[in-house]
Amino acid sequence: MGRTLLVFAFLVVVIGMVCAVQQCGDGYTRRGYYGNCYKVSLHRDLWIQARERCRLEGGWLVTIRNGVDQNWVTDFYQRHSPRPCSDGYWIGANDIGNEKSWVWDENGDPVTYTNWQPEEPNNHNGREDAAEVRMSDSKWNDMDHLTGDERCYICEKPPSSC
């Protein structure tokens, strides 16, 4: 009986360790023990394409809820981004559905924390509905989500259960 219990306990520990490693999936990194999973793209896309790629992986373009998130996400991006992605990256903030009503791609919740550059968002030429973070100062800028510049991006998703 004692040996059976010991083997069972050992298996529980091993399975727990395997689950902890596999909970994010290929290429994703977990933020802390209870956090979501994040992955920096290895290529550049338009915002609309980036959103679709994240959704195909069960996630969304990264959500930045506060200054702590902003700092963590920017640091994560700097550590994991490929060289051609040094100018900035897409985040999930957008006002595609209703101009000047910024929401998160994750769930449509209103954007309450922002880090806009001065005089942004400005909806230049009436076509800027998606947010990027510029690497020069970590400030946000609105860009065209359909035909604007291509950027790298960060996908975020919840960990999968084991």
TrEMBL record:
- UniProt entry keywords in alphabetical sequence: Signal
Which N-terminal stretch is annotated as signal sequence? 1-20
Residue ranges for the region (Disordered) are 113-142
Q: Which Gene3D superfamilies match?
A: Mannose-Binding Protein A, subunit A
**Listed Basic and acidic residues bias regions:** 121-142
Q: Which Pfam families match?
A: Lectin_C
Name assigned to this protein: C-type lectin domain-containing protein
**Which CDD domains does the annotation name?**
CLECT (cd00037)
Task: Provide the C-type lectin domain boundaries.
Answer: 33-142
